[in-house]
Design a protein that fits this description.
single chain; alpha+beta; 5 helices; about 25% strand
Length: about 170
Amino acid sequence: MTTTATGSRSLVVKSLRTSLAASATFRAWVGASGASANTQALARTHHSVFPSAADREEYTLDELKKLRPCAIVWTESYTAASKNDELNEGVLGVLLFQDVEQDTEDNPTEVSIRLDNVIGGILADMRALTDTAGFLSFDKATSDAWNRSDKDEVPGGGDVLMCELSLEWRGR
């Protein structure tokens, strides 16, 4: 069963997912191409959590690698306007996941620059869509420092980069 986003709180998350999927940088990053690139990219954005693992509680490393790169999106905060002439506002979260590429695993500078380029490109693409119907209009984007998983602490997760973004938005 798939529930359709209809309320103002779920619609803003939908607009974030739509904006990510429309980003040329995000599409290239997740390997989406061709006529179905938007659908492929949208399938790499997950609402709040990863989809459930097949027939068990945890993913295998191979399954995780098939999910990544990807984004998980959620609502950090939401304020509904009390009057019709006021705007709703809030903060949306995005957590980007990417496997560390083998050609850069021993070169942290290259790892950092590549991920920073992806983050900057996604934000620039999304900024260009601000104030376009159906896409997220955001006022400010904040990026935390990216983190690299410790393969020894999380043996089944692989060598992964993660970066959290917060997007402050305002709209109807």
